[in-house]
Give the backbone structure.
Amino acid sequence: MECDFELEGMHYEGTCIRPPSEAFSILLQVTLGCSHNKCSFCGTYKDKRFTIKDDRIILSDILFASKYMKRQDRVFLMDGDALIIPQKRLMWILERIKEHLPWVRRVGSYANAKSIRTKSLEELIELREKGLGILYLGVESGSDEVLRKVRKGTSAENLVKMGRKVREAGIKLSVTVLLGIAGREGSVEHARATGKLLSAMDPNYVGALTVMLIPGTPLHDDYMNGDFDLLTEKETLLELREMIAHTDLSRGLFFSNHASNYLPVKARLPKGKQEALDLIDHALAGKIALKPEWMRGL
Ligand code: SF4
């Protein structure tokens, strides 16, 4: 395919987000929005109808990057879950990246249970061979009740299956879980069930974020109606402690250093588990200062 666009810049549309670890990557927007777009806490793509961008625009952005982004050796495919793109088209995108950005060492993308289910193990392996090196999966909770309430559209068992499929294909798996998403009453159960899910899934990275209320989302409405409680700082730390205590990874990094968190924790499991628990205990005892509310962000 020829690119008949003037190479005037990248064609970004609407709110664009990427994982913190992709801060220095070439951000290539190949879809708009998220194919699920129903999670009760998420307002990221509420303004976008899910679409796959035109191949000519994608190619134009790759060519622009080939001229002006020669120092960035990673590509992150935005928006919500680029993995949902049909296999043939996604392979075409990865091939164009290989062709025009030969210095790129890794391509990453968000995924969800639905988009992973659309790919067979063989297809995931094919994608890995073309450069797809990491997938970011929002797990949020290991509790089926919480997953149902937040409208995740999947079960804990299915999330484990999908996560293991990604790992089996040799693609790195980074998952996020949400502290505080079960409210006060469900906190302990959420922490334990999430630890259990993570142990069964065994991802390479786990990022624990703290829930933040976004105006316009169903979760925000629940909060305003008194149907959802936000945890205090101390309750959030207790939940994080319980979650880590119940998480056994064969060799993975558990971190809670996102802008939304009160206490940055970085633990290489299984070795660093006790150290992380001790750090949280120190914070609970008031020996470590927590991030003030006004400094927390998305
Ligand atoms: S799957 Fe991710 S991006 Fe889509 S609505 Fe849920 S949290 Fe938001």
User: Anything to note?
Assistant: The CA atoms of residues 24 and 72 lie 7 Å apart. The beta strands are 26-29, 31-32, 51-52, 74-78, 106-111, 132-140, 172-179, 205-210, 252-255, 266-269. The mean pLDDT is 93. The chain has ten helices and ten strands.
